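tool_call: predict_structure(chain=1)
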Amino acid sequence: MKLPMLSAEDKLAEIRRLYFQATKQTIQDDLTKALDLLKSMGSEEERERATVYMEGLAEMYKDWRRTKNRTQKGAGR
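tool_result:
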């Protein structure tokens, strides 16, 4: 994925937007985009500012994946 040239503030704002707009249907793509943005940040300080949003996205992914797996197991009975 080719990312446009964004400032550190723009990258953080995009990660934040992905966090607040994530849904069960979009979480995997949102997390992938956020990880790409995080990797493109130039310093550890910049990445630390995004930590709370990244942890939140990872937690949503884990929770929604767990819910999906439970639903699929229950449907097979």
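agent: The mean pLDDT is 89. Proceeding to next step.
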